Amino acid sequence: MCIRDRSTWDINQQERMSAEDKSSIYSIAVLIDELRNEDMKKRLNAVRNLPTIVQALGPDRTRTELIPFLCEFVEDEDEVLASLAEVIGGLTEHLGGGQSLLALTKPLELLASTEEGIIRDKAIESMKKILSLCKAKEGETEIMGIIKRLINNAETFASKLAAIAIIPSYFAQMSTANQQEMVSFYRAGSGDENPQIRKAIAANLKHMIAHVPKYPEAEALALFNSLCKDEQDTIRLYCVEQLLALSQVIPYQKSNTFLLSTIKACAEDKSWRIRYVLADKIAEVGKCLDHDAILHYLSNYFANFLQDAESEVRTIAASRTADFCKLVDGTTIVKRLLPALKKLSTDPFVHVRKALAENLLPIAPLIGNANTSEHVIPMFLTLLKDESAEVRLPLLKNLEDLNRVIGVESLSQSLVPTITQLASEKKWRVRMAIIELFPILAKIMGEAAFSERFSPMCLSWLDDNVFAIRESAMKNLQQLTIVLGSKWAEKNILPKLLNYQMHTNYLFRMTPLFAIPMLAPYLSQEAIEKTVVPFILNQIADKVPNIRFNIAKALKSISAYVKNPALYSAITKALAQLASDQDADVKYNASKTNAAQSTQILHLSLIHIS
Prior knowledge:
- By secondary structure, the protein is mainly alpha-helical.
- It has helices spanning 8-15, 22-35, 40-48, 50-71, 78-88, 105-112, 117-132, 140-152, 158-170, 176-189, 195-209, 217-228, 233-236, 239-249, 252-267, 272-280, 282-286, 291-306, 311-319, 321-325, 330-344, 350-360, 364-384, 389-397, 399-423, 428-435, 438-445, 447-453, 455-460, 467-484, 486-498, 506-509, 511-519, 525-537, 545-558, 565-579, 584-609.
């Protein structure tokens, strides 16, 4: 940054100081000095505080003194200039209204001509904001002067990019002659040898199309056709957005023909990026066409996207499947789309299978019970076996869609064989993958049906040789208790956990010590005080230190749910016994826990007495 000497601005500022505003002017002078500071952080802070300067100076002095200063302040770090461009757009409320706001465009015009994209974009947005506040025809000469200077700036093409972006925001307020001139400029820009100019025209054409009929329809179509044939795929990328914009302003009978020809060109484009954009907007495009065109043309293009050679295209197409299927009938879905979707269920890319999993089950209500059972269920079961949790999770979230179509009985019959097979799968990660399904199934099926078909299976995972499976099984039982209630847990889970007390393997004797603290918040107080606490206290003499260590942890967790002072006292005595244990870790953990119990037992005793 070029740091200026004490300037005329400062001298005039001091000459005009009055006694009452001396303090505020001093603060302003400090901020102005910071704008010249060599430390970028201080300059950035000063820029962010410009509203304070403007408010103190008032509209007149801001226009005559501060704005000229800012026009000299356009050579700095990108971060500072980007912030300046943004802050200037927020100064409008301090300058009054009408044509006086145009003073702010002077530094913005300079910033909009920079080749650094982030600075230019901020300046353009601020300039658009200012122009939107100018009344129709007010200051048109000055505004058109700004636009034309940007267009004719021979030093840098960046100024033309700014003009292209600004024109649509003021086009409706221009005189007819100026509108015709800007139309000609856009037409010439579409054939400019600089691809960045053509890209800017393509990106902003949709905003010009919004002005039809002031922006001639024939001109819009000609420009659209020219850009759709551009050799640069980064320019053709905008064809779909332009297509949607045109469909909103051109009569339906006339638009259907050119829409289909453009869609065909995009669907068959050699650049996968073009196909990607069309696949992404496929549902929006479909809403612009008549039903016959969707069935006979668009559905074929969409089926091709689902089988595209590029995984990115397959992914975006799969992620738009549910929305697109709402535009067609069940027969079209079954005959044209489901064969392609079936291949995606075994796609080598996880992100493709994930997109399919997110969109598969919402199709079921659209094709009915029989087709769902024949086509969707097999894909669902295939994806359910997927080793990636990213693929399985969306299936579980959308399981209700499947239930609404085929019913609980059919759903459980379809799932039982697959789940049984997966439950005994040799790969432990596959076994663990299926566990997360059960809380959702419990919500759908209800306690009676779930207990009959799946409760034994959920409990059997507590006996798995892999700790990760046992840990997931415990978390699953906790979720099932939340869904099915404490009575279900006390009837089904607690008896299973109590049986581990006599297990010969200490690893399995620790299972209830891990599981019970997880279940305790959802069990009845009676179950905790009459069953759970006595069970844990009975294991205090276990020969394995690890068991005694986890008994201390479990007692600490469940003591919060014990209201009986006598039982709480028994817990404290057990912890005191463990605090004198021969094993150092057991002793330390029990001592730490027991120290916190004394206050609580006294509190409980007082409550009992009262």
